[in-house]
Amino acid sequence: MKSLLDNNFNNSVVAKIADIGINITKKIYCSLSHIWERGLFYKLRFNLSQSTIPNPLKLVQTNSQSNLSIGKEETIVVVGIGIAAFSFLRALHRLGYQQVKIVARDNFFGGKCVNNGCMPSEYYTAYRHQTPTSIVEQGQQFVSSLRQITQQSFQELGYPIISGEVTTVKNKEILLKTGEKISFDRLVLATGNQIKEFPWLENTCSLQDFWTITDGKLVIVSEGNLASLSYADIACDRVRACGADRSIDTTVIFTSNPPLTHLPSWQYFRRELEKRGIKIIVPAKIQECKPNNLTIKVRGKLETISFDHLLYDGVPELNLPEIDGKTKTILDLDLQQANVIGRPDIYVLGDASGFLSATEAELQGKKLARAWSSGETIKITDFERLPLRLHARKSLAIVGSPWTLLSPQWRSLDFKGLGWSAVYNETGKLWYLYNSSEQKVEAIHICHRDASELIALASVLIELPVTDSRWLSCSVHPSAAEIFKLLIEDIEAITDKNQQNGSLLGTQSPNTDNSSDILRLPPLSQWNQNSLYQTAFSAEERSLGILDRNPQLYFAILLGIKHLLKHDQKSETILLRCSSEGHYFVSGIDFNYEVNETSAAVTVSIQEKQVTLFSSV
Q1: What is the reported pTM?
Q2: Of 157, 400, 540, 617, which is most buried with the most CB atoms under 10 A?
């Protein structure tokens, strides 16, 4: 009897463990599938060096053989009139396909057709020199003329354009909102994406209204879009230009963590905006919205924020109709199964497949048409060469291979010391990732008000991949290359053995007077590699110093204090602070310092001892 009970108990334990394992496996599988379906995989492309994370669904599915060529007698229906659809249709037309129909939900020919990474910076910075009204009018005129040209290009293809919104796809037919049915042999969905509906949309202002805001309380609700910080930055700039009698209280609320918050520029960017009086709350949940009050929950506590203007900055979602009762879609990079699961006759292009840039959408359309005509499976190897480009309007930009986002080996430069007149007085910082074995820069990360222009220059000057000729149309300052020339020179200097110094206090000049020393501080660009910065300063001291308004002076003063105290006490973390008047102080330590602007030197003294530090540029 006892053995029987033991067996039953063991069987029940094994069954429970098996159930737990199955449930965990299902959750992992569903999570990976969800990541893929939402376009995050395709958006980042996770090229971790030479390895690639596979489509999780393909682990349990067998790969189908390459389809034969698509006959020109087949009826092809293309839903959408954006850049992906136009590229695909134009390629079909050149290949001789005639049985093609276009379904358009509206008359916005060309779709968004905006590639932030390729736009000249004039589109970002012109607002400084013009009134908001004139900018809006010019933008409307430009977009209107562009849409007319695009519409004419669609019509010149000769394919019939049917007006209507597709609601469902069933079997070999699509159903329009009007009730009309259209049959097809092949269906291409280039329906783009759409902003998620905000429950309290009636309380928000439009982007056009945003340009008229010059005072009051502005609250920006963001779904994790870094561009929201740029909106806040622009609002402060515009109010400052209006005069001293205007003021604006700006708060940015992130309902989810923005991407890339692990990169060093995030804290720097956030801190610079907070210095300007911009309040940033991340993350928070919206509980209730009334005409002039927003209730949020932050770390379990409710908080009410009043506002005069509320701007919603949502994240787009895939905009696909229901297909055979399902909405699950996956885009395969090989175009072998670039379609809805279980439907080899339905394909997805453009933003509907995972938030592509205009360049990628155009390339994708051409590749699919070529695959249909040739009957071959064409791998989109071009995508592997495309650099990851993230732009938050004008203030934050990154270019490089996707795997570089995960690297901890970022180095930095401060724009203030680079001598380029266009950025000398602008707050900004540049991070770069250097491959010492190949002696090349693999990625650039810029935090600056003209980040989009600078990132384009970086791509050209250090030969990072450039995917669009429009990158080259940026206005280039004659001495722009000085930034990146200095960057490369500093990198080369780091590899020079003569520049490496294991001493805690750097290079000391001979001096017979023990009460006065002369030290030389290495270039700030080497703060993340030079042995002095790594050994003389703690991690907390380095982080505070690099984020200071004058990092070179900060490290010089701190190094002087540490040098003078080395005989009296063991130097640990010293929290050097800067007062609102710009004077540096340390709680509990009485010291003085004097800056010599002509010789780039600072003299630090404690009682009768003093040390002079020279900063290397």
Answers
A1: 0.49
A2: 400
